[in-house]
Each structure stands twice: as C-alpha cells, then as structure tokens.
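Risk mitigation, structural track. In case the binding assays with zinc ion fail to produce interpretable data, a predicted complex structure has been prepared as a fallback.
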Amino acid sequence: MKVIEQTISQLTLPTPFAVGDVHVYVLKGDILSIVDAGVKTRQAWEALTTQLKQIGYRPSDIEQIILTHHHPDHIGLTEQFPNAQYIAAEPSVNTWLTRDQEYLEHYRRFFEQYFVASGIPKIFYQALDKLEATMDFAGRGEVTTPLVEGDRLPGHPEWEVIETKGHAQSHLSFLRDRDHLLIGGDHLLEHISSNPIIEPPKIGKTIEDRPKPMIQYRKNLQKCVDINVNKVLPGHGKIVEKPQQLILSRLTKQEERANIVYEFLQQSVMLTPFEICKKLFPYQYKKQIDLTMSETFGQLDYLESLKQIIKRKKDGIIVYEANFISE
Ligand SMILES: [Zn+2]
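Fallback model:
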C-alpha cells in the first residue's frame, strides 16, 4: 500500500497470472471510488480489505468502481463492494461483466476462424479454452456509467477520460488536468512492454475487419507524449515519472522487432502468420500461442500499414510476402 497523495492511494493485490501483482487506486473526491478491482481470489480480497483498513476504509465505503479495461486481473472483485452503486467503464466492458452469451459465442467463433486462417496446427486449439478459463477470475456486474474520451470521471471532475486502445479494445486511462498525472491501467508499464492483444471485430463484421491493436497502441502511446503526460500510475509495477523516454524506447523496440519480421519475409517466398510466429518466438510460441500470435500480428499489421509487406489468402490461409516494389 502506498499513499500517493491525501486523495489517492495505491493498493497492491496478488494475482495468479504471470504478470504478478496488480494495483488498484482508491480515489477520494465528491464520492469514494476505486479504480480497477483486482482478481477474484481469496488472497486478492484479503489483501484489499487489509490495505483499505490501513487507509481508514472498509469495502462498504466504496461508492463507485471505475475500470480501465475488461481483463480479469482488473475486474475481479466488482461484486464485493455492497454500496458501490456505479460501475464506470468503456461500454464494451459490460459484455464481460454480464457474460453476454451472444458476444462470447462471437468471440469464440472469431478465434476459431482466426486460428485456422493463421495456419495454426490443431494441436494448439486447446489454447482457445484458456480464454474462457481466465474468466473465472473476473467479477460480474453491469456498467452503469459508460465512459468515452473527453468525459469527466463522475465524482472526480478534475480527471478526464482518455481513450487508450491497444492492450485492450476497452482500454481507457484517466488524466488529471492540473498536473497531467495519468491513471494508466496497462497502457504503459515500466518493467514489461504491454502487449497489444488481438480481439474480434464487432458482431456482424468479418475476421478481416478485426481491430489492429498495434497500430492503435502506437497511436495511443504517441498521444501520451502529445498531451504531455507527466507521471503514470500503472496497473502493474513501478510508478513511471516523465514517461516520454520510456514511450520512445517502446516505439523504437517495436520498430526493430517489425524489422526482424520484414527480414524473415525478404528471405522467404511467403510465410503464414504461424510460421512467422515460430521464427520470432522459437522458445515461447508453444506455451503462449495466444500472446505470441498477437505480438506477431502486431508486427505484421504495422508492416502492412507501411506497405512493406503484402497480405494474400491462399487456400483459406493468410500468407504474407515482402513488398519489393516500394512506392
Ligand atoms: Zn493487467
């Protein structure tokens, strides 16, 4: 637990995930809010109640839950605050909190098609079940207060909502006018580079219409430089002071990784996304097919946006080749 200011405290809760501990923030304004809600485990709950007590509160004092994005390590304990009448978040978080069946089926179908189209062998398809298993750590509820970019946090009007899609399609951050302090969720982490994660397009759209999270992520990292973010209170790891340098190094590292992918493609006739993933992550792809494929597609989307590579479909499988005819 860390008291950051009189009106902001950082509580740190354990998670069973590789990312380690997650931070939640207690904000005192016109009402008492908590930003993010950890995972749904006994250990997280005990850590939360103990640390709340250290700053003089009980779970029943929390009046509003504000969520940065829909991932289970951020929405776990939403049901545990008996007097929290409001849940404020990007509107699509609701589909996760309510376990919207139509959306979850759409989600599953998208990933099945995406695995096939990427040339991923059948042996990896069990990874699809993992997507659903992690939802056991997510809480339930309903978004009462949909937030979009430019909104003010209800009860905390000095905080502006900033759209920061990339790591998640539902990702929002919150910027304080006075000193450009950002509550950043997983948008920028000091110790690991936050992964842009593949998600399906909206219901009714095809696999080709999926969002391109790396492109969004780069844009929204640059946005943090442009709006002069001064300090980031993150979802994991250390507080980031003056994040410009870290952002620039993240952008450069990504460009370097994209370049490696470009070189693979220059040396081959054509490759499927899965073949590229194996080359890029020879030691990790077997264990983490979902994350390594998201990362691979991130680089491919980026190179395609620069017209350095060309995407084609061959017998229902996506293949990429280097574009030697530069414009
Ligand atoms: Zn997280």
